[in-house]
């Protein structure tokens, strides 16, 4: 069951590049971003990179990883996976799941919890996301 909204952030794509397809896979687009927001009520800066491939049906499959840090030094790493679509305005829209790892007390409530996210990117690379606890 979905739990409470535990995080929100907004940011910007910083780098994009195309990676060659391997082992019969289509090429991938690698995207790096910088975002800021809150997670469990803690202010955070989030740096992440994900790879996305267009599937035969025109949807997107992506997976990524990143690190976030609070102004006080609390940190966490994350790994996520999701599916997406292209939007009519030239952006992308993703839905997926994410897991965190952290030894920081501020993020202790992330232990043993999977998160589900919505992530929207417009044509200019502006990004916004929301995260709910999945309990």
Describe this entry's structure for a reader.
The chain is an all-beta fold. The chain has a single domain (2-134), classed as Porin (Beta Barrel). The protein is built from no helices and 8 strands. Strand 3 (42-54) and strand 4 form a beta hairpin. The protein is globular and about 45 Å long. The N and C termini lie close together (6 Å).
- Enter the CATH topology name: Porin
Largest sheet: 8 strands, antiparallel, barrel
Helix content class: under 10%
- What is the total domain count? 1
Q: What order do the SSEs take from the amino end to the carboxyl end, as H and E? A: EEEEEEEE
Summarize this structure briefly.
By secondary structure, the protein is mainly beta.
Give the arrangement of secondary structure elements.
Layout: E1 2-19, E2 28-39, E3 42-54, E4 60-69, E5 75-86, E6 92-101, E7 114-121, E8 126-134
Antiparallel strand pairs: 1-2, 1-8, 2-3, 3-4, 4-5, 5-6, 6-7, 7-8
Organism: Kitasatospora gansuensis
Protein name: DUF3224 domain-containing protein
Key descriptive features of the protein:
135 residues, mainly beta, Porin, eight-stranded antiparallel β-barrel, 68% strand, globular, DUF3224 domain-containing protein
